[in-house]
């Protein structure tokens, strides 16, 4: 069985499968990093929506009329799932 050897700080590939393993490992890390970034964005949007809902709960119908919006329209926007924002 051939293995990787270390020689003067550089890696010499003696195992042809080592390159494939490193490439696969890199793809997995990139995929996980992308997934983590997506989840982070979703959590940020969820927090923003929670703040928006809190703010809207204190508003009156007159406030909505001033913005030329209806409670129904705002309700549909606020209740949208976070992945659709």
Estimated radius of gyration = 26 Å
Low-confidence runs = none
Work out the count of structural domains.
Answer: 1
* Count of alpha and pi helical runs: 3
Strand content: 5-15%
Average pLDDT across residues? 77
How far do the termini sit from each other? 53 Å
Helix content: 55-70%
Shape: rod-shaped
By DSSP, the count of extended strands is 2
Q: Helix and strand string, N-terminal first?
A: EEHHH
Read across the widest sheet, the strand sequence of neighbours is 1-2
Q: Largest beta sheet, briefly?
A: 2 strands, antiparallel
Features:
66% helix, mainly alpha, two-stranded antiparallel sheet, 85 residues
Give a short synopsis of this structure.
By secondary structure, the protein is mostly helical. The protein is 66% helix and 7% strand.
Report on this model:
By secondary structure, the protein is mainly alpha-helical. It has one domain. A two-stranded antiparallel sheet has the order 1-2. The longest helix is centred in the middle third of the chain and has 42 residues. The radius of gyration is 26 Å and the shape is rod-shaped. The model has no long low-confidence stretch (mean pLDDT 77).
């Amino acid at each position: 069985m051939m293995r990787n050897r270390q020689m003067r700080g550089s890696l010499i590939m003696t195992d042809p499968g080592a390159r494939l393993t490193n490439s696969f490992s890199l793809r997995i890390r990139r995929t996980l990093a992308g997934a983590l970034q997506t989840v982070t964005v979703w959590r940020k949007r969820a927090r923003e929506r929670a703040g928006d809902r809190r703010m809207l709960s204190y508003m009156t119908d007159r406030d909505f009329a001033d913005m030329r919006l209806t409670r129904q329209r705002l309700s549909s926007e606020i209740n949208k799932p976070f992945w659709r924002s």
